[in-house]
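The material for today's practical consists of a large collection of protein records. Backbone structure tokens are a discrete shorthand for how the chain folds in space. An example says more than a description, so a record of this kind follows:
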Amino acid sequence: MVSLQNSPSVHRTSLFLNSFPQKHSTLPCCRRAGISFLVKAEQAASSSTGSLSQDRPGRRQVLAIGAVAPGIFLVNQNSKSFAAESKKGYLSVTDKKDGYSFVYPFGWQEVVVEGQDKVFKDVIEPLETVSVNVIPTSKQDIRELGSAQEIAETLIKKVLAPPSQKTKLIEAAEHDVDGKAYYTFEFIAKAPNYTRHALSTVSIGNGKFYTLTTGANERRWEKMKDKLHTIVDSFQLFNV
């Protein structure tokens, strides 16, 4: 297990999802130790063994908006988080404990991020990631909390980007899969030295609120957008 060293992070000790617009009801407060939302990936590749890749100027960017940890570790690809290739160019993940599945691009590596259920990332482009967060809720349907637009705006402002970043919601939509409602939205988060273009999907099932977020540097959006949409579109919940 190889550590990503020198990765300072901004921590938020708790996530109060009851800051959502109170159209229908208040989303329960999420308390999960160590949940935080930003990781700067400063890859210290000082040796040929146990290193990732040499950090070039401008590469010290945010690892993931929506995922933070004081310690990040690469996971051995033989771990149970990895599954058989589901379609050309992608691998599938099925979490039988929490009841969800999705695909991610072949070549991305799993990292352990405190407060996140799953995180996969490209080791060369630190903004190209996918993360899944799972928290308990008493609600039965995402629509109980408000519209796709309302939920997207609140998540972007309160959870998926730090207050210092300028954000913009591009679009938000609702869709059903096997009778279950999902909200999917696209947004941009601007930091002083980079812009992240991201996609998220949220849903409720099994007494849990699920958030999957993926994205890339804005300069690579046109190249990566089809892959990122494939990730988001593949996310599904199942009963456990």
